[in-house]
Amino acid sequence: MDYKDFIADPNRSCAIVAHRGAWHGAPENSLASIEKAIAVGADIVEIDVRKSADGELFLMHDDTLLRMAGIDRDAETFTIAELQAIALREENGGEHRAVTDQRIPTLKQVFETIRGRIFADLDLKDRGLFSEVAACAREMGVASSVDLKTTVMTAGDIDWVRAQTIEGVPFMAMASFTAGDIHERLALLAEIKPFMCELRFDRLETIANNEQLFRDANMAIWFNSLDMAASGEWTDPKALLDPDAVWGVLMDAGISTIQTDEPEALRRYIEARKVSRHQAEALAG
User: Fold this and answer.
1) Cα 227 from chain centroid?
2) What is the C-alpha to C-alpha distance for residues 143 and 122, in angstroms, rounded to an integer?
3) Three-state DSSP class for residue 216
4) Secondary structure letter of residue 75 according to DSSP
5) What pLDDT digit, counting tens, does each position of 62-99 carry?
6) What residues form DSSP beta bridges with 257?
7) Which of 2, 88, 115, 239 could lock onto 27 through a cystine, CB 3.0 to 4.6 A?
8) CA-CA distance, 279 to 230, in Å (whole number)?
């Protein structure tokens, strides 16, 4: 099954996205974090893509290597050989983290690792790499297993997406919705028909009350429950304390893909929720 078919399956459980890999126990954006994401049952791994000084695509979130390797220099000023000689710090880095045996991976190494095992969300730090990354995915035989995404809020954004050469690679839009503009925003997105939308919203009711509109557009809803301001009250730390009040509420509102720094906990919650629903149905029947 390819990525788009998986997301479109009405019978699937909420999809789990491991943010920068499953980095609890492995350096973020490393091959080990991707292997761990697979091991804990994530469906999708989110990774950050940059381009080296000599033109090789590689993984790193920050502009510099300070947090993940203790080197205060822009990552993209290194050659790929120099980058792959650098050892990554544990988990999400910082000066208190120990150095590991993991190196900065190339995108091609990542594609070899994920093929047939997990889908990948490609967060390009320079969206000008769209066509180049898509070509790499096609060359490596993983085009139908990854996505490319960018913000789509204006007609100009639509024109930019249309100008990219990304045939064969699923496209995901990133957009914000309010109760006052949801119809306008969906009409705009309908021009390029993204298979999924990574969204932000003013109030959860804006999404919950219009769930059918997203269904009619064949566009799944992705939300980030990461510990950041844009996630509002629906964050991982709160979900660990009360998953029903965060992940459960999001799923009930029609959100079917959740990006998290706690993929293992989210997997356990989804499985427990499924068991509870089966038990409730058995009692009712």
Assistant:
1) 15
2) 11
3) helix
4) G
5) 999 999 999 999 999 999 999 999 999 999 999 999 99
6) 15, 222
7) 88
8) 35
* 74 neighbors 61 (Cβ within 8 angstroms): no
Q: Which residues contact 82 (CB under 8 A, 6 or more apart)?
A: none
Please report, for the chain, the start and end positions of each structural domain, with discontinuous segments joined by +: 3-54+106-284
CB 93 within 8 A of CB 28: yes
Asked if residues 251 and 274 have their Cβ atoms less than 8 Å apart, the reply is: no
C-alpha–C-alpha distance, residues 192 and 21, integer Å: 29
- Digit-coded pLDDT (tens) for 157-202: 999 999 999 999 999 999 999 999 999 999 999 999 999 999 999 9
Full DSSP string of 117-149: T-EEEEEESSGGGHHHHHHHHHHTT-GGGEEEE
Q: Look at domain 3-54+106-284 and name its CATH class.
A: alpha beta
pTM, two decimal places:
0.96
Widest CA span of the chain, in angstroms? Answer: 64
Q: Specify whether the CB–CB gap between 90 and 101 falls below 8 A.
A: no
